[in-house]
């Protein structure tokens, strides 16, 4: 239940911070036993030829550089109940969590 709650909070955070039309969720398990969940944001006016999980391939989809991703990570952390700084959430410059 904790994983479902975290995914729900993360999806709500994505909707609040980025304003996509939809947020899709997928749990993918292949050969290694672990939980692996993705959240896919799909924006209004995304062409139909881009499936729900490939909307990031659309050249018109939202993108961000290192600073934007670090800022978004810090804002999403708040939706998950974290109270840490953006530096603690995402070091960015080193590219590590």
Shape: globular
Number of strands: 2
Largest sheet: 2 strands, antiparallel
Helical content stands at 25-40%
Number of helices: 3
Main-sheet strand order equals: 1-2
CA-based gyration radius: 14 Å
Low confidence ranges: 92-97
Number of domains: 2
Mean pLDDT: 84
Strand content: 5-15%
The assigned structural class equals alpha+beta
Helix/strand order, N-terminal first: HEEHH
Cα distance spanning the termini: 24 Å
InterPro entries: HIT-like_sf (IPR036265)
Protein name: HIT domain-containing protein
Organism: Saccharothrix espanaensis (strain ATCC 51144 / DSM 44229 / JCM 9112 / NBRC 15066 / NRRL 15764)
Account of the protein in words:
- It comes from Saccharothrix espanaensis (strain ATCC 51144 / DSM 44229 / JCM 9112 / NBRC 15066 / NRRL 15764).
- InterPro entries: HIT-like_sf (IPR036265).
- This is HIT domain-containing protein.
- With 97 residues, this protein is α+β, with helices and mostly antiparallel strands.
- Helices cover 36% and strands 12% of the residues.
- The chain is built from 3 helices and 2 strands, in the order H-E-E-H-H.
- The protein has helices at residues 2-18, 66-79, 86-89, and strands at residues 22-27, 37-42.
């Amino acid at each position: 239940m904790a994983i479902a709650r975290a995914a729900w909070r993360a999806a709500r955070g994505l909707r609040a911070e980025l304003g996509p039309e939809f947020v899709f969720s997928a749990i993918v398990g292949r050969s290694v036993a672990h939980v692996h969940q993705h959240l896919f944001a799909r924006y209004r006016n995304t062409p139909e030829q881009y499936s729900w999980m490939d909307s990031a391939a659309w050249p018109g989809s939202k993108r961000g550089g290192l600073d934007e991703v670090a800022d978004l990570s810090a804002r999403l952390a708040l939706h998950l109940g974290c109270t840490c700084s953006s530096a603690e959430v995402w070091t960015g410059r080193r590219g590590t969590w």
